[in-house]
Amino acid sequence: MDRRTYLKTTGGAVTGISLAGCLGGLGGGDDSEIVAGTAPGFPPFEMKEGGDLVGFDVDLLSAVVEETDYTLADEWEEFEFDSLIPALQNDRIDVIAAAMTIEPGREETIAFSDPYYDANQSVLVSEDASVDWQSLEDLEGATVGAQSGTTGESVVESELIEPGIIAQGDYNTYDNYVLGVEDLENGNVDALVLDVPVAETFASERAVTVAFTHETNEQYGFGLRQGEEELQTALNDGLATVRDSGRYDELVDEWFGN
Amino acid sequence: MERLSFVATPLQAGDWAFVFENAGYLLGGTAITIVLTVASVLLGFLVGFPAGAIEVYGGRYSAGVVSTAGVVLRGTPILVILIVLFFVVSIDSAFLAAILGLGLRSAAYQSQIFRGAIQSVDSGQIEAARSVGMSQLKAIRHVVVPQSLRRSVPGFQNEFTIVLKDTSIAFAIGLAELLSRSYDLFVQQTTAVLEIVLFASAIYFVLTFSTNRALDRLADAYAIPGGETA
After folding, report:
1. Which of A182, A183, A185, A208 to probe the B interface (max B CBs under 10 A)?
2. Closest CA to B116 of B159, B85, B83, B81
3. pLDDT at residue number B157
4. How far is residue A219 CA from its own chain's centroid?
């Protein structure tokens, strides 16, 4: 059993236990102050610059919360992506802002705000690769990588491995996409599946290029605990306000404009 | 076939400059790594040494409990231990959970280092100590322990090194030390992966090397002249 499977198992166990209501939340403090959690290392959504957490998700959530009666705690909690849902379940954080795709599997354990970004996936290849890939079917027999716990990984598992386009052994999982890009440049892996804006960031900085984009029709949302309708409604209203005021487009330009 | 270049990414001056600009950030992570390691190894020693002694000298019940706890801790991946402590037992602070997790697992390993060292002291020495009138406890304390501590230095050096490197796993519960901070940096400047990893490795090497040398010195200083060595 590899590390990731362990995490899934423990994550599942943790979720089960917390759903069983064995855990007292940490509670206390000001009810209107919410703590946000993210997993840095996913530019331009969230990354560290000079030790500070920055990114589209960080700015967007701040702008959204500003429109509500809630206040955002100054300190964001940082975890590995796989630890975010357990952290939310345990009241260590109140909202996840980490380019998290709204998907049925996650909705069994947590709730989401309205979507705030389309989560299409890009297939990234090395600039030296002389391949003409147009769709996932073309990846037959290739080695493919993705970051553990991401939508890219679920695309690889459900649309490449399950239909038998690639073998399980030809899938590499990374803690962090930068290491995947490194592998791609060195020719150790043929393709990486990752979110469009992240892929574009890498394409502009490294000797890699986007082969094609795979429409997943999925979207990102802020992750919330189930049963917290008040916070959910407030964030949804805040998001609508931010979209209407043009602030959302400003942020998109700032973080994704080339 | 093309000639393979030695390193895939050329070492660029700009990337090294980036590493040195951010050296402070990495050293901050190093401080967390050191505190975490020292506290965990210390907890591991304080729990592990008595545990090893109990496994050798304890009654059936006490030795059984200690050895079962050891088997469970050694058989569970450190990642799982940390996640259980932080998310299931719900220890408030990630720092405390990390020290407890790393420390208890280290105690389980150290107990076996000390058990081996204690058993390596010839049982005839206990008999000799008893025959000159020492109690069992006194014999263990004055005859066995001083020798077994000396003999456990090499194993302890190993254990220290393992704990030092395993502190990186604490990022699963949100504690960013040296390695996690290295990740942050190469996400910022993705061309600098090799340079950052080399820099972090150098820090790990300095920490490991200097500690092991210090322990070697300690062993030399306390070596029994003409005595059996480990």
Report:
1. A182
2. B159
3. 95
4. 10
CB contact under 8 A, B184 and A90: no
C-alpha–C-alpha distance, residues A118 and A134, integer Å: 20
Closest CA–CA distance from residue A27 to any residue of chain B (Å)? 12
Nearest alpha carbon to residue B170 among B161, B179, B162: B179
Q: What are the average pLDDT values for consecutive 10-residue runs of chain A, which has 258 residues?
A: 49 45 44 93 88 95 96 94 94 96 94 94 92 92 92 93 95 91 94 92 91 92 96 97 96 84
CA–CA distance from B99 to each of B31, B67, B88 (Å)? 14, 21, 16
Query: What's the Cα-to-Cα distance from B96 to each of B36, B37, B75, B109, rounded to whole Å?
Result: 9, 12, 22, 20
Does residue B90 have a pLDDT over 80?
Answer: yes
A191 strand-pairing partners: A144
Nearest to B8 among A90, A186, A202 (CB): A186
Contact B176 A78 (CB under 8 A): yes
Round to whole Å and give the CA distance between B14 and B188: 13
Given an 8 Å threshold on Cβ–Cβ distance, is B88 in contact with A14? yes
Q: Is B183–A176 a contact, with Cβ atoms under 8 angstroms apart?
A: yes
**Predicted structure pTM score:** 0.79
The predicted pLDDT at position A224 comes to 97
Spatial distance between the Cα atoms of A38 and A96, rounded to a whole number of angstroms: 6
**For position B229, what pLDDT does the model report?**
54
The minimum CA-CA distance between B192 and chain A, rounded to whole Å, is 10
Over 50: is that where the pLDDT of B88 sits?
yes
Question: With the C-alpha atoms ordered A173, A179, A185, A186, is the resulting torsion angle positive or negative?
Answer: negative
Kindly tell me if the per-residue pLDDT of B32 is higher than 90.
yes
- Indicate which of A1, A7, A10, A58 best probes the interface with B, i.e. most B CBs within 10 Å of its own CB: A10
CA A83 to mean position of chain CA atoms: 12
pLDDT tier at B13 (50, 70, 90 boundaries)? low
Type of residue found at A77 = E
Q: Do B77 and A6 touch (CB under 8 A)?
A: yes
